[in-house]
Amino acid sequence: MIDSIINKLFRNTVYVEFSDEWISVKHVETGNTIEDKPLLAVKQNKKGKKIVHAVGAEVDLLQNDTTISVHNGFSHPRVCISDFEIAQATLMHFVRKALNKKILIRPIMVMHPKRDLQGGLSQIEDRAIKELAEAAGARKCYVWVGRRLKDVEIISLKFLTQNDYVISQ
What is the mean pLDDT of the chain? Predict the structure, then answer.
């Protein structure tokens, strides 16, 4: 009961549409949306540890820097996620940016892969997407395949009762 009261008062819902070419992360309650390329520039510090140097379009500005390596965790010809750790770091960056880093309550995420899914998502892809959202901070995740959702549907979770394809909750 207390959980449902807290959820209603402090709800954070994030709608993530992603492909290998772009990612859109929207904090539905505020409308704050971040759209960018899902690129991650990684650099090694003096101790040899890999650190995120730039994300999204900022990576394009570093093309001549030979000390960085550029990665796209969503670029693969057959599956939605090619590198889990890179995709996680990328998603975490955009979610924090959309939520303005100030929000303490973990969000509900609706993950919407936007690529040609011949035959739909496999159970493995579904699980990987769900675990990606949870690793990026989601307290609950829905994987959605279908048309673009409206804010009202996302906040109320009304898309769950329609005839489109919800893979998992």
Answer: 86
Please give the model's pTM, rounded to 2 decimal places.
0.86
Rounding to the nearest 10 degrees, give the CA dihedral for residues 164, 142, 127, 43: 120
* Distance set, CA 51 to CA 47, 61, 99, 152, 154 (Å): 11, 17, 22, 38, 34
DSSP calls for 30-88: TTEEEEE---EEEEE-TTS-EEEEEEGGGGGGGTT-TTEEEE-TT--SSSS-S-HHHHH
pLDDT at 168: 52
Domain locations in the chain? 2-35+101-168
Token readout for 164 is 């489109």
Q: Which residue carries 């048309």 as its tokens?
A: 147
pLDDT of the residue at 66: 84
Taking Cα atoms as reference points, which of 56, 139, 130, 50 lies closest to residue 90?
56
Q: What is the pLDDT of residues 92-123, one digit of tens each?
A: 999 999 998 766 688 999 999 987 767 778 88
All residues at 6 or more sequence positions from 155 whose CB lies less than 8 Å from its CB, including other chains = 11, 13, 28, 29
